[in-house]
Amino acid sequence: MKARWDIFCSVVDNYGDIGVTWRLARQLVAEHGCGVRLWVDDLRAFERMCPQIDVSLEQQWQEGVDVRHWPCEWPATAAADVVVAAFACQLPADYMQAMAARERTPLWMNLDYLSAEDWVVGCHRLPSVKFKGVQKYFFFPGFRPGTGGLLREAGLLQQRQAFQEDANAQRQFLQTLGVFPVADARLISLFAYENAGLGGWLDVLSTDGRATHLLVPEGRILGDVQRWLGEEGLTAGAVHQRGALTVQVLPFVRQGQYDQLLWCCELNAVRGEDSFVRAQWAGRPLLWHIYRQDEDIHLDKLDAFLELYTAALSPTAKEAVVAFWQAWNTEGDMARPWKMLQAHWPELNGHAQNWCLEQALQADLATALVQFYESWI
Ligand code: TRH
Protein backbone atom coordinates (compact mmCIF):
# COMPACT_ATOMS: atom_id res chain seq x y z
CA MET A 1 0.00 0.00 0.00
CA LYS A 2 1.29 3.43 -0.96
CA ALA A 3 1.81 5.92 1.82
CA ARG A 4 -0.79 8.52 2.70
CA TRP A 5 0.43 12.09 2.96
CA ASP A 6 -1.03 15.18 4.63
CA ILE A 7 0.38 18.49 3.39
CA PHE A 8 -0.49 21.61 5.36
CA CYS A 9 -0.45 24.98 3.65
CA SER A 10 -1.08 28.23 5.43
CA VAL A 11 -1.25 31.07 2.93
CA VAL A 12 0.80 33.85 4.51
CA ASP A 13 0.61 36.15 1.52
CA ASN A 14 0.74 36.07 -2.26
CA TYR A 15 0.85 32.75 -4.09
CA GLY A 16 4.11 30.99 -3.24
CA ASP A 17 2.80 28.95 -0.31
CA ILE A 18 -0.05 27.46 -2.28
CA GLY A 19 1.95 27.42 -5.51
CA VAL A 20 4.60 25.15 -4.02
CA THR A 21 2.29 22.84 -2.07
CA TRP A 22 -0.18 22.40 -4.93
CA ARG A 23 2.64 21.51 -7.28
CA LEU A 24 4.13 19.05 -4.76
CA ALA A 25 0.77 17.44 -3.99
CA ARG A 26 0.00 16.83 -7.68
CA GLN A 27 3.41 15.35 -8.30
CA LEU A 28 3.23 12.98 -5.34
CA VAL A 29 -0.06 11.66 -6.69
CA ALA A 30 0.83 11.54 -10.38
CA GLU A 31 4.39 10.25 -10.18
CA HIS A 32 4.61 8.40 -6.89
CA GLY A 33 1.08 7.05 -6.50
CA CYS A 34 0.74 8.57 -3.02
CA GLY A 35 -2.62 9.40 -1.47
CA VAL A 36 -2.43 13.11 -0.71
CA ARG A 37 -4.64 15.41 1.32
CA LEU A 38 -3.75 19.07 0.87
CA TRP A 39 -5.01 21.25 3.71
CA VAL A 40 -5.25 24.90 2.66
CA ASP A 41 -6.49 27.73 4.86
CA ASP A 42 -7.17 30.17 1.99
CA LEU A 43 -8.93 28.69 -1.00
CA ARG A 44 -9.24 32.10 -2.68
CA ALA A 45 -5.47 32.32 -3.27
CA PHE A 46 -5.64 28.74 -4.58
CA GLU A 47 -8.46 29.64 -6.97
CA ARG A 48 -6.23 32.18 -8.80
CA MET A 49 -3.96 29.43 -10.14
CA CYS A 50 -6.55 26.67 -10.16
CA PRO A 51 -9.84 28.26 -11.29
CA GLN A 52 -11.78 24.99 -11.05
CA ILE A 53 -11.54 25.15 -7.24
CA ASP A 54 -14.91 25.60 -5.55
CA VAL A 55 -14.08 27.89 -2.63
CA SER A 56 -17.30 26.99 -0.82
CA LEU A 57 -16.39 23.32 -0.38
CA GLU A 58 -14.71 21.79 2.66
CA GLN A 59 -13.52 18.84 0.56
CA GLN A 60 -13.02 18.32 -3.15
CA TRP A 61 -10.88 16.29 -5.55
CA GLN A 62 -8.57 18.18 -7.89
CA GLU A 63 -6.23 16.29 -10.23
CA GLY A 64 -6.20 13.30 -7.90
CA VAL A 65 -5.46 15.41 -4.81
CA ASP A 66 -7.90 15.39 -1.91
CA VAL A 67 -8.13 19.14 -1.30
CA ARG A 68 -9.38 20.14 2.13
CA HIS A 69 -10.26 23.51 3.47
CA TRP A 70 -8.20 23.86 6.66
CA PRO A 71 -10.95 25.07 8.97
CA CYS A 72 -10.71 27.01 12.27
CA GLU A 73 -12.61 24.17 13.97
CA TRP A 74 -10.39 21.16 13.30
CA PRO A 75 -12.44 18.02 12.46
CA ALA A 76 -11.54 14.70 14.12
CA THR A 77 -9.28 13.04 11.58
CA ALA A 78 -6.65 10.31 11.63
CA ALA A 79 -3.09 11.38 10.91
CA ALA A 80 -1.38 10.24 7.69
CA ASP A 81 1.86 8.25 7.28
CA VAL A 82 3.78 11.35 6.20
CA VAL A 83 3.01 14.86 7.40
CA VAL A 84 4.44 17.92 5.66
CA ALA A 85 4.11 21.31 7.31
CA ALA A 86 4.97 23.77 4.57
CA PHE A 87 7.07 26.80 5.44
CA ALA A 88 7.00 26.22 9.20
CA CYS A 89 3.24 26.44 9.50
CA GLN A 90 1.80 25.37 12.85
CA LEU A 91 -0.26 22.16 12.73
CA PRO A 92 -3.64 22.03 14.51
CA ALA A 93 -3.19 20.85 18.13
CA ASP A 94 -5.72 18.03 17.67
CA TYR A 95 -3.91 16.81 14.60
CA MET A 96 -0.65 16.66 16.57
CA GLN A 97 -2.45 14.51 19.14
CA ALA A 98 -3.68 12.29 16.32
CA MET A 99 -0.09 11.91 15.08
CA ALA A 100 1.04 10.85 18.55
CA ALA A 101 -1.90 8.43 18.87
CA ARG A 102 -0.93 6.41 15.79
CA GLU A 103 0.43 2.93 16.32
CA ARG A 104 3.30 3.70 13.96
CA THR A 105 4.27 7.33 14.36
CA PRO A 106 4.25 9.34 11.12
CA LEU A 107 7.21 10.97 9.44
CA TRP A 108 6.74 14.65 10.22
CA MET A 109 8.65 17.21 8.17
CA ASN A 110 8.90 20.91 7.88
CA LEU A 111 9.30 21.82 4.22
CA ASP A 112 11.50 24.88 4.49
CA TYR A 113 12.13 27.96 2.38
CA LEU A 114 14.40 27.73 -0.61
CA SER A 115 17.88 29.12 -0.12
CA ALA A 116 21.26 28.76 -1.82
CA GLU A 117 23.14 29.50 1.40
CA ASP A 118 25.73 26.84 2.24
CA TRP A 119 24.45 26.13 5.78
CA VAL A 120 21.36 24.55 4.21
CA VAL A 121 23.29 21.38 3.33
CA GLY A 122 24.23 20.87 6.98
CA CYS A 123 20.66 21.34 8.23
CA HIS A 124 18.79 19.34 5.62
CA ARG A 125 17.10 16.24 7.14
CA LEU A 126 18.23 17.11 10.66
CA PRO A 127 15.83 16.33 13.51
CA SER A 128 13.95 19.35 14.86
CA VAL A 129 11.47 19.33 17.79
CA LYS A 130 9.65 16.28 19.14
CA PHE A 131 5.99 16.06 20.14
CA LYS A 132 5.05 13.12 22.37
CA GLY A 133 7.53 10.85 20.66
CA VAL A 134 6.83 12.13 17.15
CA GLN A 135 10.03 13.53 15.69
CA LYS A 136 9.94 16.44 13.32
CA TYR A 137 12.64 16.86 10.62
CA PHE A 138 13.87 19.80 8.58
CA PHE A 139 13.60 19.29 4.86
CA PHE A 140 15.34 21.93 2.75
CA PRO A 141 14.90 22.40 -0.96
CA GLY A 142 18.04 23.73 -2.58
CA PHE A 143 20.45 24.02 -5.45
CA ARG A 144 23.41 22.23 -3.96
CA PRO A 145 23.99 18.48 -3.81
CA GLY A 146 23.03 17.35 -0.31
CA THR A 147 19.81 19.43 -0.24
CA GLY A 148 16.29 18.32 -1.14
CA GLY A 149 16.56 19.74 -4.68
CA LEU A 150 13.86 21.62 -6.57
CA LEU A 151 10.32 20.79 -7.61
CA ARG A 152 10.49 19.44 -11.16
CA GLU A 153 7.87 17.24 -12.77
CA ALA A 154 8.97 14.21 -14.81
CA GLY A 155 9.42 15.13 -18.47
CA LEU A 156 9.28 18.86 -17.78
CA LEU A 157 12.50 19.73 -19.57
CA GLN A 158 11.64 17.61 -22.61
CA GLN A 159 8.23 19.29 -22.83
CA ARG A 160 9.83 22.69 -22.50
CA GLN A 161 12.42 21.95 -25.16
CA ALA A 162 9.84 20.66 -27.64
CA PHE A 163 7.75 23.78 -27.07
CA GLN A 164 10.72 26.11 -27.50
CA GLU A 165 11.62 24.37 -30.77
CA ASP A 166 8.08 24.81 -32.10
CA ALA A 167 7.51 28.40 -33.18
CA ASN A 168 3.92 27.60 -34.16
CA ALA A 169 3.02 26.20 -30.76
CA GLN A 170 4.45 29.32 -29.13
CA ARG A 171 2.57 31.64 -31.49
CA GLN A 172 -0.68 29.78 -30.87
CA PHE A 173 -0.18 29.84 -27.13
CA LEU A 174 0.55 33.57 -27.12
CA GLN A 175 -2.53 34.17 -29.24
CA THR A 176 -4.70 32.51 -26.59
CA LEU A 177 -3.45 35.27 -24.26
CA GLY A 178 -4.12 37.94 -26.90
CA VAL A 179 -0.40 38.50 -27.48
CA PHE A 180 0.68 39.35 -31.04
CA PRO A 181 4.29 40.56 -30.89
CA VAL A 182 5.86 42.37 -33.83
CA ALA A 183 8.50 40.35 -35.72
CA ASP A 184 11.80 40.08 -33.86
CA ALA A 185 10.42 41.72 -30.72
CA ARG A 186 12.17 40.70 -27.53
CA LEU A 187 9.59 39.09 -25.23
CA ILE A 188 10.04 39.72 -21.52
CA SER A 189 7.69 38.56 -18.77
CA LEU A 190 7.44 40.67 -15.64
CA PHE A 191 6.18 39.17 -12.37
CA ALA A 192 7.48 41.20 -9.44
CA TYR A 193 6.65 43.05 -6.26
CA GLU A 194 6.34 46.83 -6.24
CA ASN A 195 9.64 48.23 -7.52
CA ALA A 196 10.64 51.88 -7.90
CA GLY A 197 13.52 50.78 -10.14
CA LEU A 198 11.13 49.71 -12.90
CA GLY A 199 10.82 53.15 -14.51
CA GLY A 200 14.53 53.39 -15.29
CA TRP A 201 14.47 50.00 -17.00
CA LEU A 202 11.36 50.84 -19.02
CA ASP A 203 12.96 54.13 -20.09
CA VAL A 204 15.90 52.30 -21.62
CA LEU A 205 13.70 49.63 -23.23
CA SER A 206 11.52 52.28 -24.84
CA THR A 207 14.51 53.96 -26.50
CA ASP A 208 16.28 50.72 -27.50
CA GLY A 209 17.14 49.85 -31.09
CA ARG A 210 15.18 46.59 -30.80
CA ALA A 211 11.47 46.30 -30.01
CA THR A 212 10.47 44.81 -26.66
CA HIS A 213 7.09 43.30 -25.82
CA LEU A 214 6.72 43.29 -22.04
CA LEU A 215 4.13 40.87 -20.67
CA VAL A 216 2.89 41.73 -17.19
CA PRO A 217 0.55 39.34 -15.38
CA GLU A 218 -1.92 41.23 -13.18
CA GLY A 219 -0.35 41.78 -9.78
CA ARG A 220 1.67 43.97 -7.47
CA ILE A 221 4.04 45.57 -10.03
CA LEU A 222 1.12 47.00 -12.01
CA GLY A 223 1.10 50.24 -9.98
CA ASP A 224 4.65 51.02 -11.09
CA VAL A 225 3.81 50.11 -14.68
CA GLN A 226 0.81 52.44 -14.61
CA ARG A 227 2.84 55.29 -13.14
CA TRP A 228 5.45 54.97 -15.86
CA LEU A 229 2.85 54.81 -18.61
CA GLY A 230 0.79 57.62 -17.09
CA GLU A 231 -2.30 55.40 -17.31
CA GLU A 232 -4.74 54.32 -14.64
CA GLY A 233 -6.85 51.26 -13.95
CA LEU A 234 -4.94 48.85 -16.20
CA THR A 235 -6.43 45.38 -16.34
CA ALA A 236 -5.74 42.23 -18.31
CA GLY A 237 -5.85 42.91 -22.03
CA ALA A 238 -4.51 46.48 -21.83
CA VAL A 239 -1.79 47.19 -24.41
CA HIS A 240 0.25 50.41 -24.53
CA GLN A 241 3.17 51.40 -26.68
CA ARG A 242 5.92 53.86 -25.81
CA GLY A 243 8.64 54.05 -28.42
CA ALA A 244 10.24 50.64 -28.90
CA LEU A 245 8.40 49.22 -25.89
CA THR A 246 4.97 47.59 -25.91
CA VAL A 247 3.52 46.86 -22.49
CA GLN A 248 0.73 44.32 -22.25
CA VAL A 249 -1.17 43.28 -19.12
CA LEU A 250 -2.01 39.60 -18.94
CA PRO A 251 -4.49 37.73 -16.78
CA PHE A 252 -3.16 35.56 -13.98
CA VAL A 253 -3.16 32.12 -15.60
CA ARG A 254 -2.91 28.48 -14.45
CA GLN A 255 0.50 27.27 -13.39
CA GLY A 256 0.94 25.20 -16.57
CA GLN A 257 0.18 28.21 -18.77
CA TYR A 258 2.52 30.37 -16.74
CA ASP A 259 5.28 27.85 -17.51
CA GLN A 260 4.54 28.19 -21.20
CA LEU A 261 4.69 31.95 -20.93
CA LEU A 262 8.15 31.67 -19.36
CA TRP A 263 9.23 29.28 -22.12
CA CYS A 264 8.25 31.86 -24.77
CA CYS A 265 10.22 34.74 -23.30
CA GLU A 266 13.85 35.75 -23.79
CA LEU A 267 14.04 37.02 -20.23
CA ASN A 268 11.79 36.32 -17.28
CA ALA A 269 11.51 38.63 -14.29
CA VAL A 270 10.20 36.45 -11.47
CA ARG A 271 9.81 36.65 -7.71
CA GLY A 272 9.30 34.72 -4.48
CA GLU A 273 10.11 31.05 -4.72
CA ASP A 274 8.08 29.00 -7.18
CA SER A 275 8.17 31.34 -10.20
CA PHE A 276 11.90 31.75 -9.53
CA VAL A 277 12.41 28.00 -9.90
CA ARG A 278 10.14 27.76 -12.95
CA ALA A 279 12.17 30.47 -14.70
CA GLN A 280 15.28 28.34 -14.16
CA TRP A 281 13.57 25.34 -15.76
CA ALA A 282 12.72 27.62 -18.71
CA GLY A 283 16.43 27.61 -19.56
CA ARG A 284 16.43 31.33 -20.28
CA PRO A 285 18.08 34.27 -18.49
CA LEU A 286 16.10 35.48 -15.51
CA LEU A 287 15.83 38.34 -13.07
CA TRP A 288 14.80 37.53 -9.51
CA HIS A 289 12.88 39.86 -7.25
CA ILE A 290 13.48 38.22 -3.91
CA TYR A 291 10.83 38.30 -1.16
CA ARG A 292 11.83 41.08 1.25
CA GLN A 293 12.63 40.12 4.84
CA ASP A 294 13.36 42.09 8.01
CA GLU A 295 16.82 43.53 8.46
CA ASP A 296 17.54 42.89 4.77
CA ILE A 297 18.43 39.26 5.43
CA HIS A 298 16.98 38.49 2.00
CA LEU A 299 20.01 40.24 0.50
CA ASP A 300 22.27 37.51 1.95
CA LYS A 301 20.06 34.93 0.28
CA LEU A 302 20.26 36.86 -2.96
CA ASP A 303 24.07 37.02 -2.78
CA ALA A 304 24.29 33.31 -2.01
CA PHE A 305 22.28 32.45 -5.09
CA LEU A 306 24.20 34.88 -7.27
CA GLU A 307 27.49 33.41 -6.11
CA LEU A 308 26.37 29.94 -7.13
CA TYR A 309 24.55 30.93 -10.31
CA THR A 310 27.34 33.08 -11.73
CA ALA A 311 30.26 30.80 -10.76
CA ALA A 312 30.76 29.51 -14.31
CA LEU A 313 30.34 32.88 -16.06
CA SER A 314 33.15 35.06 -17.42
CA PRO A 315 34.07 37.85 -14.98
CA THR A 316 32.38 40.61 -17.00
CA ALA A 317 29.19 38.60 -17.57
CA LYS A 318 29.10 37.82 -13.86
CA GLU A 319 29.53 41.50 -13.06
CA ALA A 320 26.62 42.37 -15.36
CA VAL A 321 24.26 39.79 -13.81
CA VAL A 322 25.17 40.79 -10.26
CA ALA A 323 24.74 44.50 -11.03
CA PHE A 324 21.39 43.91 -12.74
CA TRP A 325 19.94 41.73 -9.96
CA GLN A 326 21.24 43.95 -7.19
CA ALA A 327 19.86 47.08 -8.82
CA TRP A 328 16.46 45.41 -9.14
CA ASN A 329 16.44 44.32 -5.51
CA THR A 330 17.55 47.68 -4.14
CA GLU A 331 15.39 49.73 -6.51
CA GLY A 332 18.55 51.20 -8.03
CA ASP A 333 19.46 52.32 -11.54
CA MET A 334 18.57 49.58 -14.03
CA ALA A 335 19.72 51.31 -17.22
CA ARG A 336 23.45 50.74 -16.91
CA PRO A 337 23.33 47.09 -15.79
CA TRP A 338 20.78 46.36 -18.53
CA LYS A 339 23.21 47.65 -21.14
CA MET A 340 26.05 45.64 -19.58
CA LEU A 341 23.86 42.56 -19.75
CA GLN A 342 23.12 43.04 -23.45
CA ALA A 343 26.82 42.81 -24.25
CA HIS A 344 26.87 39.25 -22.83
CA TRP A 345 23.56 37.92 -24.07
CA PRO A 346 24.76 34.81 -25.98
CA GLU A 347 26.86 33.75 -23.01
CA LEU A 348 23.99 34.34 -20.58
CA ASN A 349 21.61 32.39 -22.77
CA GLY A 350 23.93 29.38 -22.98
CA HIS A 351 24.58 29.61 -19.29
CA ALA A 352 20.86 29.55 -18.44
CA GLN A 353 20.55 26.26 -20.35
CA ASN A 354 23.61 24.74 -18.69
CA TRP A 355 22.43 25.82 -15.25
CA CYS A 356 19.07 24.21 -15.90
CA LEU A 357 20.67 20.92 -16.98
CA GLU A 358 23.03 20.97 -14.03
CA GLN A 359 20.17 21.50 -11.58
CA ALA A 360 18.22 18.70 -13.22
CA LEU A 361 21.01 16.26 -12.31
CA GLN A 362 19.75 16.35 -8.73
CA ALA A 363 16.73 14.32 -7.69
CA ASP A 364 13.63 16.52 -7.73
CA LEU A 365 12.09 17.60 -4.45
CA ALA A 366 9.08 15.26 -4.55
CA THR A 367 11.32 12.26 -5.26
CA ALA A 368 13.71 13.36 -2.51
CA LEU A 369 10.83 13.51 -0.03
CA VAL A 370 9.63 10.05 -1.03
CA GLN A 371 13.17 8.69 -0.77
CA PHE A 372 13.54 10.19 2.69
CA TYR A 373 10.31 8.52 3.78
CA GLU A 374 11.41 5.18 2.32
CA SER A 375 14.76 5.32 4.08
CA TRP A 376 13.08 6.45 7.31
CA ILE A 377 10.68 3.49 7.49
O1 TRH B 1 3.55 34.99 -5.04
P1 TRH B 1 4.93 34.94 -4.50
O2 TRH B 1 5.53 36.21 -4.16
O3 TRH B 1 4.90 33.99 -3.28
C1 TRH B 1 5.66 33.83 -2.12
C2 TRH B 1 4.86 34.24 -0.91
O4 TRH B 1 4.90 35.63 -0.79
C3 TRH B 1 5.46 33.60 0.29
O5 TRH B 1 4.85 34.03 1.48
C4 TRH B 1 6.92 33.80 0.33
O6 TRH B 1 7.43 33.08 1.36
C5 TRH B 1 7.52 33.33 -0.96
O7 TRH B 1 6.96 34.02 -2.04
C6 TRH B 1 9.01 33.44 -0.98
O8 TRH B 1 5.90 34.21 -5.57
P2 TRH B 1 6.03 32.72 -6.09
O9 TRH B 1 6.65 31.87 -5.04
O10 TRH B 1 6.70 32.79 -7.36
O11 TRH B 1 4.55 32.20 -6.30
C7 TRH B 1 3.77 32.58 -7.40
C8 TRH B 1 2.96 31.42 -7.87
O12 TRH B 1 1.97 31.85 -8.77
C9 TRH B 1 3.79 30.37 -8.60
O13 TRH B 1 3.33 29.07 -8.27
C10 TRH B 1 3.49 30.64 -10.07
C11 TRH B 1 2.05 31.07 -9.96
N1 TRH B 1 1.53 31.88 -11.07
C12 TRH B 1 0.50 31.35 -11.81
O14 TRH B 1 0.06 30.19 -11.58
N2 TRH B 1 -0.03 32.10 -12.82
C13 TRH B 1 0.44 33.34 -13.12
O15 TRH B 1 -0.09 34.01 -14.04
C14 TRH B 1 1.53 33.86 -12.35
C15 TRH B 1 2.07 35.24 -12.65
C16 TRH B 1 2.03 33.11 -11.32
Automatic annotation (TrEMBL):
Keywords, ordered alphabetically: Glycosyltransferase, Transferase
Catalytic activity: dTDP-beta-L-rhamnose + L-arginyl-[protein] = N(omega)-(alpha-L-rhamnosyl)-L-arginyl-[protein] + dTDP + H(+)
Signal peptide (residue range): none
InterPro entries recorded: EarP
One example GO MF annotation: protein-arginine rhamnosyltransferase activity
Pfam families recorded: EarP (PF10093)
Sequence similarity: Belongs to the glycosyltransferase 104 family.
Role, per record: Protein-arginine rhamnosyltransferase that catalyzes the transfer of a single rhamnose to elongation factor P (EF-P) on 'Lys-32', a modification required for EF-P-dependent rescue of polyproline stalled ribosomes.
Name under which the protein is recorded: Protein-arginine rhamnosyltransferase
